[in-house]
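Hi everyone, sorry if this is the wrong subforum. Our group has a chain we'd like a structural model of before ordering constructs, and none of us has done structure prediction before. Sequence below.
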Amino acid sequence: MTTEVRVPTLGESVTEATVATWFKKPGDAVTADEMLCELETDKVTVEVPSPASGQLADIVAAEGDTVGVDALLANIAEESAAGPETVKPKANAPETAEPAGEAASTDIIVPALGESVSEATVSTWFKKVGDSVAQDEMLCELETDKVSVEVPSPAAGVLAEITAGEGETVAASAKLGVISGAASGAAAAPAAEKAPAAAAPAPAKDVANAPSAEKAMAEAGIDGSQVTGTGRDGRIMKEDVAAAVAAAKAAPAAAPAPAQVRGPVTADDAAREERVKMTRLRQTIAKRLKDSQNTAAMLTTYNEVDMTEVMALRNEYKDLFLKKHGVKLGFMSFFTKACCHALKEVPEVNAEIDGTDIVYKNYVHMGIAAGTPTGLVVPVIRDADAMSFASIEKAIAEKGQRARDGKLSMAEMQGGTFTISNGGVYGSLMSSPILNPPQSGILGMHKIQDRPMAINGKVEIRPMMYLALSYDHRIVDGKGAVTFLVRVKEALEDPRRLLMDL
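Answer:
Right subforum, don't worry. Here is the predicted structure as C-alpha cells:
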C-alpha cells in the first residue's frame, strides 16, 4: 500500500513553489509527520511532513523543480504488517521487528504557533532526559513574538531525548524531543540513559542552501559567510540574501549613530554588570514601537477630566452591579464606552492608512494595553461598541488574567482599531503613549489625583485625571483629535450622555 506526498496549501494567492531540499532519499525509512522536504515560495519556506510511516519509495519532484498546489512530490510505501517500531531505524540493530518488551517512540513536535508566526524560542524545559512523563503533562514552554506556548506530552512514557535545548529557535512543526514508551522500568531506564550518549556524537553536516539563494548571492556578489541563514539547520534562503544586501546598504547610514554604542566600562564596573539576552517578546515590542515612531506622524494632545460623576455613579451601583453580573464595576468600562461614543463622531481616529487609501472601520475592536511580567501586550475586545458595561468588564477581567498568565492566543491580540493604555495604575500622572500600528489613535489614562479647581467661582477639591490622545497626524487633523478628547471628557463628566447617545 502506498501513500502519496502532495504539495500542501501554500498561502493566499500563492500557486506554486520550488522544491528546495529533500531531507530523505528513496529507500529511507520515515515516520508519520517526519519532515521529508522543504519548498520555497516567493514569500515563505514550507516544510512538507510525511503523511504516514513507512519507506520513501520514490521522489517525483526533484530539488529545483517547480510544483503547483496539490502536485505529487513522492510516494510512501507503507509497511502494513509491521507497527511503527519496524519503520523507525535503530542503531546497531538488524532489520527485524522490535522485541515485544519494547514500546514505540513518539516525537515531540512544535504545535501550531498562530497566524503569521513561523518560529519560536525554547524558553524552559520542565523535564529532563530520563524523567517519566504522563500524557498531556507539560514538557516545555516556547516563547514567540507575542505569546508563550506550553507543549504537552503526546504520550505517556520516558523523555528519552531533547533535540531542541533551552534558547534554541525552532520552526513550526519542528522536532523538540522524543518520548519512549515505558514497557517496563528495567527497559525504560537504560534507554533513557543511553539517549544523551547517542545524541552527543551526531556529526555536523553540510547544509545545502536554497537554489534561489545561491543565484541571488551570485548576482549580489556575496558569499555564504556574509549571510545568516534562517532555514532548516541554518540553510540560507532567498529572503536571507535580500536582508543581507539591504543591511549592507544601510550600514554606512547606521554607522555614525552614537546612541547605539556603549560607553567605556571599567573592569570593576563590568564585574558588577549582568548581561541578559532580550526575550523575543521584548525584541518585538522594541521593534514595533520604533517602527511606529519612524512611520507615523505622531502627535499628542492633552485634556483633563473631572472624575466626580463617574466615581459617584460607580460607588452608588458597584455592589448591585457585582451582585447581578458577578464582576466588579471599574473605570475601564466607562472609558471604553466614552471612546466608542467619540469614535462615532470622529471616525478618522478609528481608521488606518493602507498605501494611499484610508480604511474607515464601522466597528470598534478596542485594544486594552496590559502590563505582564514578560512585557506589554494588547488583548483586543471585539465589537466593544455593541457591548454593555457588564460585558466589557467581564471581557477586560478575563483577557487581563489570561495576559498575566501568558495564555493569550495570537488571534486575541490582532485586529484592534483603537487602544486604551492606563498608566494610572502604576501612578503615572502624565505621559505620551506611542501608537499601536497600524492604528491611528491611542488614549492614555493617568492617575486620579485630588486638585483644587475653580467651580462656579469657588475653589473646590476635585478628583482630576489627565488624558492624552496620541494620533497619526497623516490621517487625523488637530481639530478631529481635540474634538475626540473633548467628547470623551464630556461623556465622563456627565455619564448620562452615554445613555442618551449625546
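For your construct planning: Confidence is low (pLDDT under 50) at residues 81-101, 183-205, 253-259. The CA atoms of residues 354 and 438 lie 9 Å apart.
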